[in-house]
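Q: Convert this sequence to structure tokens.
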Amino acid sequence: MTQNTPLSPLPPLFPRPAHSFQDAPHRVLSAAQLRARGVSAAQTSAQCLPGGPWQPLLPGVYLLHAGPPSGQERLHGALLYAGRPPAASSRRTPPEPTDDGFGEAMVTGPAALALHGFASVPDLEALHRVDVLVPRTRRLRSTRYVEVVRAAALPPPVRLAGVPVAPVERALADAVAGAGAGDAEDVRRLLTEAVRAGHCEPGSLVRELSAAKVLGRPAVVGAVDALLAEGRAAAEGRLYAMVREHGLPEPLWNVELRLPGGPELGGVDAYWPDLAVAVELDARAPRFGAPEPDLRGGNRGAGRTEDPQWSAYAAKRERLERLGITVVHLTPRKLREATEQQATVVRTALMAAGDQEPAAYVMVLPR
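A:
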């Protein structure tokens, strides 16, 4: 009778480093990072043979285990693929093992919105595509599940879940630009959630959509007015809460001011008639393509056309201040991000009003 002697396991192709790649984020490394750890290209290829312990995930990016990649691993792989230095300027020295290898690349589109916490976007495990934003000069092709998005100027990324992510406004614009014709309802849902959940202000979002040249799309056209109305209501709610939570005297809300027997002076969001102090929210729709005005006067960018909406705001403010009425100008973003500071601004204006000359008498009418 013949007895089969079990074969002893084959020795590893190369001695594994002491850290056994446990420092690799989600067990995904680029070819450059493997070389920095002492693993040659031939050794990497051998580890990725059928039945081997590793597998190629993307060109030049490897998954250091068998089985399907997780959503986080696909995310890291996409950034490693997009973050590779151009061949013409590849680094002479290998990267440090701690180098994340992402370069200037950042996640954008639906994957970025998932990281920002959008409820209307599938989680990373369910997403079939990862959009990655890179400089326009990069020669890089979309491949497999990675969609390469180019920009002339990259926005400053935010760090979420250990990876660079495009700001909400840019991620939304890229998601809308990459949406199909049948995704109109999804686009409206995304834009509505962005404002309603406080992820961003409608003005900055509309400016980003304009820069991405997607404002003319049917799904976006129908949503913009609703976005601005939603943002206005949210800002008014924050203003009401600020007055009450910070112990400011109760004003008259949403009133029109008019000279007796004279012309209308315009509406304000809050008015303290005994102190002649008004608060006005700047929740206007942006003039597409125009620079955001500098609140200290003028526009950002010399020689550019002045925003007519801002001109109307400034003219109304000047009229009221000539009559002795102090106008405090607040923005929705400041109310959301620095409520206590804005309450201090209003309180200071109210306290200073007692030291000023009495204002002209004006009629106060409901708006």
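Residues 5-19, 287-305 have pLDDT under 50 and may be disordered.
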